[in-house]
Specification:
Layout: H1 2-14, E1 29-32, H2 59-73, E2 80-84, E3 87-90, E4 95-97, E5 109-113, E6 119-122, E7 124-127, E8 131-132, H3 136-140, E9 151-154, E10 182-184, E11 187-188, E12 190-191, E13 193-194, E14 200-201, E15 213-215, E16 231-235, E17 242-251, E18 256-259, E19 273-277, E20 288-292, E21 297-300, E22 311-314, E23 321-324, E24 329-332, E25 335-339, E26 344-347, E27 353-355, E28 358-362, E29 367-370, E30 376-378, E31 381-385, E32 390-393, E33 406-408, E34 411-413, E35 426-428, E36 434-436, E37 439-443, E38 448-450, E39 456-458, E40 461-465, E41 472-478, E42 487-489, E43 492-494, E44 504-510, E45 517-519, E46 522-524, E47 528-533, E48 539-541, E49 544-546, E50 552-555, H4 563-566, H5 574-580, H6 588-591, H7 593-596, E51 610-612, E52 615-617, E53 622-625, E54 633-635, E55 638-639, E56 645-647, E57 652-655
Parallel strand pairs: 1-2, 2-5, 3-6, 4-23, 5-24, 6-25, 12-20, 23-26, 24-27, 25-28, 26-29, 27-30, 28-31, 29-32, 30-33, 31-34, 32-35, 33-36, 34-37, 35-38, 36-39, 37-40, 38-41, 39-42, 40-43, 41-44, 42-45, 43-46, 44-47, 45-48, 46-49, 47-50, 48-51, 49-52, 50-53, 51-54, 52-55
Antiparallel strand pairs: 7-22, 8-9, 9-21, 10-11, 10-22, 13-19, 14-19, 15-18, 16-17, 16-19, 17-18, 20-21, 56-57
Length: 682
């Protein structure tokens, strides 16, 4: 009878095991579930009939079990797959994976969602107990027209006592974890601000740009009297540099705001834009919230009835998952969300991959890959992040040894909620890394910020970025003669514009950037498309430009306004960067022979740039500013209103086989391969 009973149990369990057979239970598969127990074995996806065994409850327990498994008998052939059952996994501390948690090539450790179940790893806590506001002091500070729309919840009574800090952040500032944030219906809510949308402008700076104060128009700040910890967010002088500043005092008679140090990026300039936030009196629109940090009371105007959604606040400041010197770990099919810091941080190691995951409502970035080899993120969706999407670095710049790290086939959109400038969808540095097949859109500033050597940026689609800034590039680099060898090829840039000073560029080789190849891309309504700002030895070849203004720009800024910055001892430190790489010696002298002799060849002169075999339709073709035509190569380009598009009316910009472009040597661009791909990861 006992034997029959065991058969019944195993038969019942087997119905939940389409991936692992019963023979594999206890060897290659482990399970975790919010309904599990860390006192169980983790060998079953559901509790047994007697509820004396089943899945683990915590990720730490399954990690530690794999460590013991490896110590006792070694990693089984094929590695170990950890299946996470659907549900929420709140983290109160970082899940730390170290070298002892590694798999090996061909036998990885995989943490993945079970079948099609939704697994939510959360760096915060759910908030309940919302009630109408009734505190007389608080109510008096809220516009009477809005009081019945606002609810409150006591965070301290729910065990939430760490509210984090609002800190000066943005351009040129350290990256800090976000303070506590509120999310409702899986979307970030707005810390109470004024104006609710758009900006107001600095009226005057009577004390000068660097006095740490400025004057405002109107009398709105009179409503803020008595408010604590008012913050301002602005583009204070340049339209590519935003920061958050804490208010020190407000003189409502003089209409003057004084800020705490370090004050706005590049000081305060009359006419520049900002808004105020973290003000209870400005809680006057659906989706806005404010926290009384003394009492722990959260005030919220929900954009839908409060019972029609779930509210969470972010708590965790450290990375949700940390992988230090780990190899052959795979995270797959997970949702990571609602955290103040970074979701996944990978340092060193090799062969690690984050695949088919969703990252949303993150305080800093989704994934930070630093060093190691063949580490990557692919097939993921990333949105509503505070400080950009992905940081990708690795490789040795002194030896030019490549890392082979990658970000491929990801959908990154609506990023950089907090710091708006120079927090790109993907930041890439080091040597020999790859960005491919990504779809990037709806970002306020840069899509890809690159530096270093020999990267491959290919088959990406980029649109509707740079929309809040000026003097900005969708792909951007600058101020270093040594960061050469990067190839930007077979990308599709479209519908890109910067509404502020100097507008937007699709590929922006700024401030003497050199040695980059722009090959086989399509630029459609992409503002100033290929922009060479005083650099050398750049190649613009075999591209299609449609309705760009201009298609190609080359200037000689190193001989004009930028001369003092490029010179020895100048602010761009060009010579120091050159010396740091020992560019007259191998491997640089062999890999980049033109760089080896740059100091004997008028380094500030934009020599060696090539514009060849491009197609330009509509818009404007070429701007040369202060550039001698004899030092650049411009040849075999086709300028035609209709060079033979397949279907221009529907933005099908492939060229027909009878296009005149092929007679000048133009190579067909594989447009069908650009952007996200199905059925493959990279």
């Amino acid at each position: 009878m006992r034997h029959l009973f065991n058969i019944v149990i195993l038969t019942t369990v087997s119905t939940f095991l389409p991936t692992c057979t019963l023979a594999e239970i206890g060897q290659n598969c482990l399970y975790v579930s919010p309904a599990g127990s860390d006192s169980w074995s983790g060998r079953f996806p559901v509790a047994t009939f007697l509820r004396d065994d089943g899945p683990f409850k915590s990720l730490e327990k399954v990690r530690d079990t794999i460590r013991l498994l490896k110590q006792d008998g070694g990693l089984p052939d094929g590695g170990v797959t950890v299946y996470l059952r659907g549900g929420m996994y709140p983290l109160t501390k970082t899940l730390e994976l170290t070298a002892e948690d590694s798999g090996v090539e061909g036998s990885p450790i995989v943490y993945q969602a079970y079948e099609t179940e939704t697994v939510r790893i959360i760096g915060g806590k759910e908030v309940a107990g919302f009630v109408p506001i009734d505190d007389g002091t608080v109510v008096s500070r809220i516009d009477p027209a809005h009081r019945d729309k606002i609810v409150r919840a006591d965070l301290k009574s729910q065990g939430i006592t760490d509210f984090g800090e609002l800190k000066p952040r943005g351009f040129g500032r350290p990256v800090h974890p976000a303070g506590l944030e509120l999310f409702f219906q899986d979307r970030p809510m707005q810390l109470a601000r004024w104006p609710n949308t758009g900006w107001v402008k600095i009226a005057a700076t009577p004390g000068g740009k660097d006095a740490g104060k400025f004057q405002y128009e109107g009398d709105r700040p009179k409503r803020w009297v008595g408010a604590e910890e008012i913050w301002l967010h602005g583009y204070w002088t340049y339209d590519w540099a935003d920061t958050y500043e804490k208010v020190k005092s407000i003189d409502t008679q003089a209409r003057e705001i004084t800020t705490c140090k370090p004050h706005g990026a590049y000081g305060y300039t009359t006419g520049k834009r900002y808004y105020a936030l973290n003000i209870l009196a400005e809680l006057e629109a659906p989706g806005e919230w404010w926290l009384d940090r003394d009492s722990g009371m959260l005030y919220f105007w929900p954009p839908a009835p409060i019972n029609e959604g779930r509210a969470f606040v972010s708590v965790l400041e450290q990375p949700m998952i940390s992988m230090l010197d780990v190899s052959h770990i795979k995270l797959q099919g997970l949702t990571l969300e609602c955290t103040r810091g970074t979701a996944v941080k990978i340092i060193g190691g090799g062969g690690n991959v984050v695949s088919k995951c969703t990252f949303r409502n993150i305080g800093n970035v989704a994934v930070n890959i630093s060093g190691g080899t063949d580490n990557g993120i692919c097939g993921c969706e990333i949105h509503e992040t505070g400080d950009g999407g992905v940081i990708l670095s690795g490789g040795d710049r002194k030896t030019l040894v490549a890392a082979g790290n990658y970000a491929c086939n990801n959908h990154i959109h609506h990023y950089s909620r907090w710091a708006r400038s120079y927090r790109p969808a993907i930041r890439i540095s080091g040597v020999g890394n790859r960005i491919a097949h990504n779809l990037i859109h709806d970002g306020p500033h840069t899509a890809v910020l690159f530096c270093g050597n020999d990267h491959m940026l290919e088959f990406n689609e980029v649109h509707n970025v740079c929309y809040e800034t000026g003097d900005v590039g969708a792909f951007y680099t600058g101020r270093d003669w040594t960061t050469r060898g990067t190839v930007i090829r077979h990308n599709y840039f479209h519908d890109i514009s910067g509404p502020y000073t100097h507008g937007a560029m699709a590929v922006y080789l700024d401030d003497a950037a050199s040695g980059t190849t722009i090959f086989g891309n399509v630029f459609y309504k992409a503002s100033r498309a290929a922009f060479i700002g005083g650099g050398r030895d750049n190649v613009v070849e075999n591209n299609i430009f449609v309705q760009c203004h201009p298609a190609v720009h080359i200037d000689a800024r190193g001989l004009g306004w930028a001369k003092k910055y490029i010179a020895r001892g100048g602010g761009w430190h060009m010579y120091e960067k050159l010396n740091a790489m020992s560019c007259s010696e191998p491997p640089y002298s062999a890999r980049y022979p033109k760089l080896a002799t740059i100091l004997q060849d008028d380094p500030a002169v934009p020599k060696g740039n090539v514009v060849r075999r491009n197609v330009c339709s509509g818009g404007r073709w070429l701007d040369l500013q202060g550039v001698d035509r004899n030092i650049v190569t411009i040849e075999d380009n086709l300028l035609a209103d209709d060079p033979g598009f397949v279907d221009y009316a529907n933005a099908d910009l492939r060229l027909r086989s009878d296009s005149a472009a092929y007679r000048i040597g133009f190579k067909q661009i594989p447009m069908e391969r650009i952007g996200l791909t199905r059925g493959r990861q990279n």
